[in-house]
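Risk register update: the risk that structure generation would not scale has been downgraded. Supporting records follow, first protein first.
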Amino acid sequence: MATLTYCKGLPTPADELNELGFTDFEMFLEAYAPIFRAASIETVNHLLLSTQFKKSDWNTHLQQTYGINKRHANGVISAA
């Protein structure tokens, strides 16, 4: 059975916000989301169409194609 836990978010100090009202982390997530989406779609299509999947080769492909690091490429593969 799942347990729900309430976590109250603390307000972000004003000096950590940029002129748009976002933190650096929020800006990173906003910029990274389209890259992750495109890489995930390509990975799912590759998994559906190919008969053989070599994770290390695909990881290298994602890194080179999307300019992401190995950890992010592994995240894409895991999510797909």
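Supporting record for the second protein:
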Amino acid sequence: MAVVDNGEVFGWGYNGNGQLGLGNNGNQLTPCQLIGLMGLCVQQIVCGYAHSLALTDEGFVYAWGANTYGQLGTGNKSNQLSPIEIMANKERSRIVEVAACHSTHTSAAKTQTGQVYMWGQCRGQSILVPHLTHFTCTDDVFACFATPSVMWRPLSMEYDDFLTVAQSLKKEFDNPETADLKFCVDGKYIYVHKAILKIRCEHFRSMFQSHWNEDAKEVIEVDQFSFPVYRSFLEFLYTDEVELPPEDAIGLLDLATSYCENRLKRLCQHVIKRGITVENAFTLLSAAVRYDAEDLEDFCFRFCVNHLTQVTQTASFWQIDGKLLKDFICRASRYGAFNN
């Protein structure tokens, strides 16, 4: 199984129990998209001995494949050839992690509030629906209940006092004790190291030259971007990661486009895809058009068409300028959205 950046899922290989989720139990020689998950943005896929679990960006869990021990959590022991929803965030808090491993028929999930559920094979017994445990970590489910006792993912054995180069850089970001430069954005300071910025970004490499005024400054004021956006950009130079809500990621996408940071631009698109909802879909589509992000634009467009009724009832849909709205309606018509 594989998940691509836009949340689509593909499966291939042995499929005797329907563990590929393709609607049949025939083997698949080449990657094939799971129709049962189309329109959803999947964040995580895990595979057991003969079953699979998927977690969407909205905290819903889907399962398919073998179910002899209740490892799908559907309340019965019938195999499922296509993905079926088993856990949602309606009755309990949002699901943030699912777990399974090849050596056992056990499944587990963790909620945003730290509750851990398990189902499937449990010391020779079958748990047919997700059962709340006293654990705070999904690893403990497999260590205590699985037969044999296993871990479902690799664990790091590094010493606590050892930091890699990447970890050291991350630790020093926004550290006033070691910084030699600070940016002032919206009246707040961000502490950085000039050498790191020059190494990581062509924009700063050009800025910090002896004949430029910025090279002699200890404080540089920024007024083109908001504080969360600019801080996230500088943090990206230290960590190569982006952690922002999709609405702020739009501003960061603007910055990445302005500074010609193509990798950052791709990461922003990834964040936006993961965070798309009915309420913000058209706003994100508008941003993708504005910043020439073709792949993101296509993703947002297909999301809007797949959720057309709900999207057209949101405030963001009716606040978009007339040209974009007209273009969307024409394109959606060619897509077949109004055939019914």
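The chain has three domains: 2-144, 157-241, 260-340. On this basis the risk owner (M.S.) recommends closing the item.
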